[in-house]
Design brief:
Elements: E1 3-6, E2 12-16, E3 19-23, E4 45-47, H1 53-56, H2 59-66, E5 69-73, H3 74-81, E6 87-90, E7 95-98, E8 101-107, E9 124-129, E10 135-138, H4 148-155, E11 160-164, H5 173-183, E12 187-191, H6 203-212, E13 225-227
Parallel strand pairs: 3-4, 4-5, 5-6, 10-11, 11-12
Antiparallel strand pairs: 1-2, 1-13, 2-3, 7-8, 8-9, 9-10
Helix pairs in contact: 4-5, 5-6
The chain binds nickel (II) ion and manganese (II) ion (MN).
């Protein structure tokens, strides 16, 4: 069993038999986040999908506070490694078994510049598999792409797909509904909406459209959890 908790924007906490993992911890500066970076004391890993500030977020401070391993692409891994933090580089298409679970980076169509505009490699999605086989796909920031079908086919059945719906920088609702169809996950949960003015979207509209299309979906509000 795994427990998934939403912390707003694209930040998710996964607790499973291997430990506790955080993805894209953008908390400081996000009025919709339910917690701040100080809320974390025991953490095994932080997974970072790309270099943008709303995804790197509080990675540095949380990693310093907890000693969590940062797992991300090669360039972002070097960026945090240069700060003296523990990091492990993966890259697109590559995966690795860690004590806290298996992490594989998948493609994402987006950018990945760092806080000062530095080159931080290519953006990724993350496929997390717990030791007991629960599979969570976090799409990162991305456009809709047909290879999501391949992710569902090769690595499914996925238990959960976390999909951006906010438009402007990523997929919109209709794109994300098609993504849900391609991926075939049991439950599709929206993210990356309403944090900033350009990404306003109605998450219940996403869930309705996913259900009308024969899929499963639900909304988690910041602070809410669901069991997988
Ligand atoms: Ni981004
Ligand atoms: Mn973003």
């Amino acid at each position: 069993m795994a427990t998934l908790k939403y912390h707003g924007h694209s930040c998710w906490e996964i607790e499973s038999d291997g430990g506790r993992v955080l993805i894209d911890p953008f908390l400081s500066g996000n009025e919709l986040a339910d917690v701040g970076p100080e809320a974390f004391d025991e953490l095994d890993a932080i997974l970072v999908t790309h270099g943008h500030g709303d995804h790197i977020g509080d990675t540095e401070i949380i990693a310093r506070n907890t000693g969590a391993l940062i797992v991300t692409n090669f360039e972002i891994s070097n960026y945090f490694g240069a700060m003296g933090l523990n990091s492990h580089p993966l890259h697109i298409g590559g995966g690795r078994e860690f004590p806290f679970g298996h992490v594989k980076l998948t493609i994402a169509h987006h950018g990945s510049s760092g806080p000062s505009g530095e080159y931080l490699g290519t953006p990724a999605g993350v496929l997390f598999t717990s030791h007991d086989g629960k599979k969570i796909y976090h799409a990162g920031d991305t456009a809709l792409f047909l290879d999501m079908k391949l992710i569902g086919e090769m690595y499914g059945p996925l238990d959960v797909a976390l999909l951006p719906i906010g438009d402007n920088f990523t997929m919109n609702i209709d794109d994300a509904v098609k993504a849900a169809e391609f991926l075939g996950a049991k439950v599709n949960i929206p993210m990356h909406y309403n944090t900033f003015p350009p990404i306003q979207a109605d998450p219940s509209e996403f869930v309705k459209k996913v259900r009308d299309n024969g899929g499963g979906g639900r909304v988690l509000d910041p602070g809410e959890t669901c069991e997988i």
